[in-house]
Amino acid sequence: MASVVSQAMSALGYGRFIVSAGDVGSDVAESIIRHHGTGVAAAHLTDVSQRHYFQGLPEDLTAEEQAYVRRGHAWQATEGGYSHEQSTKPSTLSIALGDSPVGLLAWIGEKLWSWTDHNNDISTVFAPDEVLTWVSVYWFGRCIGTSFGPYALATVMPNEYVEVPVAMTIFPKDLANAPQSFVRRLFDVRSFQELPTGGHFAAWERPEDYLAGVHAAVAAAR
To answer: What is the pLDDT of residues 49-79, one digit of tens each?
Structure first.
């Protein structure tokens, strides 16, 4: 995915650009930085890859960083069943979800519910038609199976520093937020903003706050 994005930017004539992302997009953005980074002027991220706390951790983690790793593993144990299924049995799952629109709605809908900052009223973030539109893209596009690719074909994410300016926007109800000290082990952090509200789907939930992070990355690039 990182190669495709990088090739597209080159084909469009952009020799220098900024990447902005969250969730799997953060993995793609980091891969662009690490493997195609000559054109990346800066990056804006809402999280760092969860793969960082699964292997190759430094031995000098602070107490705060150790708590983050424990929190990440605990989150995987209670909420990460979808990830294990998508990475180990993607074909079986894609057939099941591709055969049932109600099943697909349940699969995606519970993540929208669980990972969003909505205080038990998801309509304050997503209108019913927005939820249905989201799920319908997967149903009519027949693309739920291909969406499992980043899980089934996952690559190792090294815990090595890369010198690209990064602006972080942290939303409190995201999945497992890394402390600033851990992020600084990976990137040249120029901005680290922790917001009082917002969840995992930040670009949709809190678009103005997300955009402010993009602006911070633009400022870092300059």
So the answer is: 988 988 889 999 999 999 999 999 999 999 9
Q: 148: helix, coil or strand?
A: helix
Specify the DSSP element, H or E, that contains 132.
Answer: helix 128-141
The Cα 176–Cα 11 span in angstroms is 36
Nearest to 27 by CA among 116, 145, 154: 154
**Closest-CA residue to 76 (of 53, 47, 94, 59):** 53
185: its two tokens? 């082990």
- Classified as helix, coil or strand, 125 is coil
pLDDT of 155 strictly over 80? no
The string of pLDDT tens digits covering residues 10-56 is: 999 999 999 999 999 999 999 999 998 789 999 999 999 988 988 88
Pick 2-77+156-221's CATH classification: 3.40.190.10, 3.40.50.1820, 3.20.20.10, 3.40.718.10.
3.40.50.1820
Give the C-alpha separation, 39 to 62, whole Å.
33
**Cα(71)–Cα(78) distance, integer angstroms:** 11
**CA gap 32, 198 in Å, rounded:** 26
Is 166:217 a contact under the CB 8 Å cutoff? yes
Round the CA-based radius of gyration of the chain to a whole number and report it: 18
